[in-house]
Amino acid sequence: MSSNVTALRQPVDGLHIQPLAAPLGAEIHNLDARVDPTPEQILALKQALRDHHILIFKKQQLDDAQFLRFTSWFGSVFQPHPDFAVLSSGADGKAPDIVKVANTGDGELGNFALPAHTDHQWTPTPSAGSLLYALEVPEQGGETSWTNLALAYSALDEDTRREIDGLRLINYNPFVRIKNGGYGGGGFVTYRTPDIEPIQGTEHPLVRVHPESGKRLLFLSVHTEVEIPGYDPEKGAALIGRLREHLQDPRFSHTHKWEVGDIVYWDNQATLHARNAFPATQRRRLKRISLAGSRPF
To answer: Which of 36, 239, 280, 296 has the most C-beta neighbours closer than 10 Å?
Structure first.
């Protein structure tokens, strides 16, 4: 880390946490991420993340060293298992600490829409959260939406909760399908049937417990290849389809219109996130740091 990162401290009483009028999210005011927060502020921010699942920091101006330092107050940088490819994985299986999410230069993910998903769900230990920092944003499109998985689970009827509690779900690696030409253009398989070859999956609970808050969460992305082990494929596909339709209810989501200087910190264990498409002629450039997580239970 650069030696010119100054270890100053925020005023103890300077932080203001403003919950959004939405199913999740809070804006954080009076915090300069270039300045080290106090212990009281760090604890307040961690509690706010447990309560609201996404935190929005406005008007930030950070270099990479400052961004990494700010992120480090919340956890260690995520590194994938070397056998499980993720976004920006290199030939050695490692990913950079800072991932460039951009449709310019050496950025990732272009300008197309991304369906609601949890990052790294196909790995043994998915990331606990991510911080995404906006450097350039398009005039049209490119918004990010987050879904509250605790709220989505609690809104299920009792019979459905009873049906899915205790079920396991194999999440297959979409980046392997990308390499094999099976992703995008409607060709991505959303539920594995016996005639589809299984490719690199990890089994996790369909309903996971948040490791800090204890909340029960519907741990399911809306457009990834999955399988319920030991379940009849037709019955499993119908159940997953029903749950995915439920997850897309707007009662559970909030959409963020990005501005330059925004940092959004989201709990990857308790949310899904999705992105709207935007014109290829417009620039969208952000940087993401993900935090190490634990095996879901």
So the answer is: 296
